[in-house]
Amino acid sequence: MNATRVELLDEVHQFCQAHPEVRFVDLICLDIPGHFYGKRYPIEMLEKVAAGSALKLPQNCVLLGAQGGLYEIGDYCFHDGDPDAPRRLIPGTLKLVNWERQPLGQMLISSDGTEAPIEFEPREVLARVVQRLAARGIRPVVAFELEFYLFDKALKDGLPQYPRDDLSGDADDQPNMHIERLSRFAEVLDDITETARLQGIDTTVITAEIGPGQFEINFSHNADPLQAADWSALFCRVTRGVALKYGHRASFMAKPYLQYPGSGMHIHVSLYDEAGDNLLARDEQRPLRHAVAGCLELLPELMPLYAPNHNSYRRFGAQVNSASKASWGFEDRDACVRIPESDARNLRLEFRLPGADANPYLVLAALLTSIEQGLDAKVEPIAPLNDDRESGVDFPTDMLDAVRRMQASERVAAGLGSEFVMVYCENKRQDHLAFMHDISPREYRWYL
Known about the structure:
Layout: H1 3-18, E1 24-30, E2 36-42, H2 43-51, E3 56-58, E4 84-86, E5 88-89, E6 95-97, E7 104-110, H3 122-135, E8 139-152, H4 180-184, H5 186-198, E9 203-208, E10 214-219, H6 225-245, E11 248-251, E12 265-272, H7 282-298, H8 303-306, E13 328-330, E14 337-339, E15 349-351, H9 360-377, H10 399-407, H11 410-416, H12 418-436, H13 441-447
Parallel strand pairs: 1-7, 13-14
Antiparallel strand pairs: 1-2, 3-4, 5-7, 6-7, 8-10, 8-11, 8-12, 9-10, 12-15, 14-15
Helix pairs in contact: 1-2, 3-9, 5-6, 7-9, 10-12, 11-12
């Protein structure tokens, strides 16, 4: 028995001893739109899987659309017989789910690291990029920050309502960054962060953001990029589940209110060599500038990953800390790429463009690929916003236009894989067309 199986069996045994009340375990994986899919296994079957029994799920689960349906994409879905594909358990991710009505376990699974990984599975796409960088002696250290909104659990005429805190019963309708808002929603926020920690997610700072019911949670810097993305994906699941216990809906929708700021996914990235030295700080920070140039140059071709649906594009061009062009700057939150003040050891860039609705595995894969190509090209970036407030590169603000640009990009195909690019772009194109295939009440008011 190999070391990984011994490790997995020990993890299962310890979990069963600590939680004898748990009868089922959800084995889960993230699909292209960023939803978890999987199967619920009796706890006694998990030991057999950990020992080496085959774990397979339909390959096409990865291709599900935003509403869960399948689209005809290349030779997949309706032309391949919907075959099973192998998955593996990810060590260290078997945790207790304590927000359901009955106690459950959950564990992440993936096709990366199997004999036949699925080329377009998001975690596998990121794993390939990380492995490529590792072969070059580049070790990324990553930290995610996620913004989200809380709403009242009850909708009114299908529309979200401001959340009410338990202390005063008042709606959170006076948005600001006052610390008192953290106190008013302390019970649900504390439960979210504590439950996240039980899932192995290392959360740090909590901020009350500008929108009503809007908050931000930061995660610790992580030398394992795959685990950093795991944390981000699992945190969304935790937050939605815990919020319902307190009469709230939690959403990572990019722009739920037109009049208030959208929710973003910010990613801090620093690069280290095998000796632990910061690569970005070398040679008077030239690698940092080259990395920035790569991010900005490739950004217009990666927009479907950073803004994955129709609503995502409503974030851009807002008045508060939201970019309308691909730009960069030192300590500038209006820029897509911000360089926080730091010493040489901790020099990093912060990528602020993606929405909170984006798939964390794919966003990180795209960002690291952009940095890699920038380091190789060794081109100086455009002027920072600190020197020129009009500096920036235009990016597509229409979903179908963005998809066309990504699908035609040889650089994106080289970095992320041509099969993935084909599958992803077709999935997003069909999702967008399905979304638009509806007549809204406004359309009747305007044109009837």
